[in-house]
Amino acid sequence: MLPHAAARVTVALGCVSGVLLAAAACLAGALPGGDPGPGLRLGGFGAVSASFLLGLACWLLGMAGWTLAWWRLGRAEDMITGGSVRTGSAWRLLAIGAAWAAPLLVAPPLGSRDAYAYACQGWLWRAGLDPYTLGVADGGCPWTTAVPEIWWHTPTPYGPVAVLLTSAVTGLGGLLGALAGLRLLTLAALALLALTLPPLARACGVAVPAAYWLALLTPLTAVHALSALHNDALVAALAVAALTLAVIARGRAGQAGAWWAAAGAGAAVAGAVGVKVTALVAVPFVLVLLGRRWWAGAVAGVAAFAGVSAASGLGLGWVAALRGTGELVQWSSPPTAVGMAVGYVFRLAGQGGWVDGAVAVGRALGLLALAGFGVWELAHAWRHRDETGAVVRACGWVMIATALLGPVFYPWYALAPLAVLAAAETGPRRRRWLAVGAVACALLTLPNGLGVPVLTKAVGAFAVTIALIVAAVRSRPRATA
To answer: Are the CB atoms for 5 and 89 separated by under 8 Å?
Structure first.
């Protein structure tokens, strides 16, 4: 435990950092009136206003301060490695996190403009239009100018649960009311996560404060869940709820409540899939945890998903809309980065026509690697199906692989797998890498939503490719004499 004076300094640093991030949101964030720094991408720092530069400074100081305070808090009780057992520290940790985050609740979004797209997609459904066939501009959403222009004519790739929820909360009146509704929805998701993490963490051998520290207090959660309002927070909450209910069901042998827990697990994971299709990878692990009650979870899940699809009146139109999600080419996805690097080499060699093919091949190899890794981990989970921690860890790492090996990776994609592994990963070294990864992801976007990968395409592509080569070489087994 930190000395009392040091603890007060750490908590105060986090509070000041939250205020700085809120100031950054007001000066250089994803403002509803438009991008406060539209010239940054092409003209650099000399093409933006002094207020934007001040906001950017607040962003850097706030992120640095939050990260330092969060790390010091983790080291105080060994929460980084998952070893904290201090009585009452879990609730104290949540209170500290709430104090740090409070300023963000009354500030504009940071790091992304996706919240405006969510609001427009909900508006389309409430207006009787199909968000799976129309972009927000095509449907005449009154808030279209707040949405990044690249998404104006792109149908929503999110499932019926996301559409129904956003349509409900965006009926509160105007764009600010819609943002308030989305913030309430995010807070509800984080509250559900706080309720369902403890039993899952205890079943996996991780201290509850350590799970809270890695899942709820990270800079990534502050920026991309609480501030930017990404629906990945809801995916995280529903996925953890499904795994927790599955653990409860397997622990109540012969009790009637076990069947209800199994059905709840199926419905929860179906809800996660109904927000984002990538949550499908968690389904087999939930069924493995349920054991002989797997069929109850499967039936409940199919019934819940079918019911929501019928209630939305949109069917499976969102499946076709998924095709638009891979249009952007950014090095934040490792397979795409490798394809980009090879493409740059081809371009230097005068074979510019091969660039797109190189990216396509890189992405295809990434999907093949994901399939192989997923089968490997599922087989491992099945062999160790009596070990709760082993199954949940396998689920979390497959979710990580799904995010990183897909054609496109955005930092908020890490929210759901990080929440699962926060409760299940017991390896100190792996937990440290997860913590470092959470910080790195939080820094992949600027406060106005402009992605760092957009500004550093060639440099980032070669850096990621070289890092992958080095990692592959270092991981090779060494010959013994």
So the answer is: no
